Amino acid sequence: MRWILAAFFVAAGVAHLAVPDKLLAMTPGWVPFAPQIILLTGLFEFAAAVALVTRPLRWWAGVTLALYSVCVWPANIHHALGGIDIAGLPSSWWYHGPRLAAQPLIIWASLYAAGVIDWPFRRRQA
């Protein structure tokens, strides 16, 4: 799971750097310095993905990726509810619904893959 999640965040980082205009379109207006934040979050996604698969940094990577995923949720909500059409992305609820519902799963997976939590697969004590 850790490697899959790291690959997911690397892909997101590529998107942040390759097509920042698409991400800027879905960023709420109240976000200050949005272009710079999109650049920095793309770089963060790369660094956190590497940290997630590096034992000494894994715990911190999981915590920060979970917090990051909470912080980008408003952009996903804004994109879904704002009627924002972005070329190459579907605009139906068949896209937005699962994407919004997946956010808690991404938060959980970040924490679980990093060993921050073990719910619901707790190890049995002997």
Radius of gyration from the alpha-carbon trace, in angstroms? 15 Å
Number of helices: 5
Total domain units: 1
**Number of DSSP strand runs:** 0
**Taking all residues together, what is the mean pLDDT?**
93
Overall shape: globular
Considering the chains and any ligands shown, give keywords for the structure.
mainly alpha; 70% helix; 126 residues
A few lines on this structure:
The protein has helices at residues 2-18, 20-26, 34-52, 58-81, 93-113. With 126 residues, the chain is mainly α. It has one domain.
Set down the secondary structure blueprint:
Layout: H1 2-18, H2 20-26, H3 34-52, H4 58-81, H5 93-113
Give an overview in words.
- The chain crosses the membrane at residues 33-53, 60-81, 101-121.
- Keywords: Membrane, Transmembrane, Transmembrane helix.
- This protein is mainly α.
- It has one domain.
- The protein has 5 helices and no strands.
- Helix 1 runs antiparallel to helix 3 (34-52), helix 2 packs across helix 3 (34-52) and helix 3 (34-52) runs antiparallel to helix 4 (58-81).
- The mean pLDDT is 93.
